[in-house]
Amino acid sequence: MIEVRPHAPQTRSEPVPESPAPVAESPESSSRPPCPAPADFRAEVATYDRMAEHAIWEGPRYRMHYRVLGQGPPLILVPGIAATYRGYALMLNRLASQFRTVIFDYPGDHPDDGAKLGRITHDHIVDDLFGLIEHLNIGRAFLTGLSFGSTVVFRALHREPRRFPKAVVQGAFAHRRFSRAERMALSLGRHLPGQSSRLPWREQILAYNSKSHFPSIIEDRWPYYLEQNGLTPIAALAHRLDLVTRLDLRPILPEIRNPVLLLQGNEDRIVVRRYFDELNAALPAAEGVIMPLVGHQPHYTHAEALAQVTADWLLPCAPEGCPNEPKPAAGT
C-alpha cells in the first residue's frame, strides 16, 4: 500500500516476512517452493569471519578495524551505536552476492585503538569515513546506516553528494530528545570501566524495547544479541550517546537531494515513528517504508528481508525484468 502525501515523499507499508507460516493453498501458492527455515545466525557469523577480509587502517584519530566482503559496487554499512560487526553478518553475507560490502568499527571499540574519545566529534567520525573510503580507493559508493549510523550517513551525503548515488537508512533520526536524568546518567557513564554488559538494568531495558520482536522461531538470536550488545565498551557507548545529545542535523536535511530510502519498524520503541515522519517530510528525495511487526533490530530479526529490500532499492531491475525473475507465460 502506498500512501502519497501532498508535496511530500512517498510512504508505503510493506510486509516483511519474519518466519515461515502456514497459508491456505491457492493455484499460485501451490506452485511456489516452501519458505526456507531461518538461518543459523551463529553459523552465518562463522561464515562471515571465514570469508571477509579483516584489516586495520591507521587513521588520524584511531586504528580503525574494518571488514570487506563481496564483489560489485561498493556498499558501506555504518553501524548502530552499540553493536559489533557480528550483528550484521547475516545481512552482509546476503548483500555480498551483489556488492563489495564494507563495515567498520567506531573509535573506542577496541582498547588498543588509540582513540582519545574526549577529542573526537561527530564530524570527526564522518571525516574518518571519508578517510577509509580513500584508503580503500573507492570512488562512488552506496551508503546504508542503522540508527546512530544514519546520522553519519546524512552528514556524508550533505558533505559530498556526488560521491553517493543512493543511501538506505533504518531506525534513522536527525535529532534526539534527552531528559535531564538521561544526560546525568551519560555524564556518570563516561567514568565507568568495562563493557556495557556491566550496566545495571541493561537486559531488562533491552527486553522491554526489543524482545517481543524476536519470535519463537528465531528465539536463539535473542541471547546472541544480548551478548554482542554487551561487548561495547561503556566509555565508547557514553561517548557516542553524548555526541547524539548535542547533534541536530535538521537544518541540513532539505539540502540533501540524494535519493534516500527510509526504513522504519512500526513497533520500534527506541527510535519511534515521529523521527521517521520528520525525516520523510524534510528530505527532498526520500521514500519511506514502514515495516509492520518490526522493531529496532531487523538486522537480527529480519536480516534477509532487510538485505533484499536494500539491494532491490539500490540496484533496481531494468524495465525488461530481473535476470532471475521467471518470464510470464505466452499470452498472459
TrEMBL record:
Residues 73-302 form the AB hydrolase-1 domain. Gene3D superfamilies: alpha/beta hydrolase. GO terms for molecular function: acyltransferase activity; hydrolase activity. Keywords: Acyltransferase, Hydrolase, Transferase. InterPro entries: AB_hydrolase_1, AB_hydrolase_fold, Carboxylesterase_BioH. It comes from the Bacteria. Residues 1-38 are annotated as: Disordered. Residues 12-32 have a biased composition (Low complexity). This is Putative hydrolase or acyltransferase of alpha/beta superfamily. It comes from Singulisphaera acidiphila (strain ATCC BAA-1392 / DSM 18658 / VKM B-2454 / MOB10).
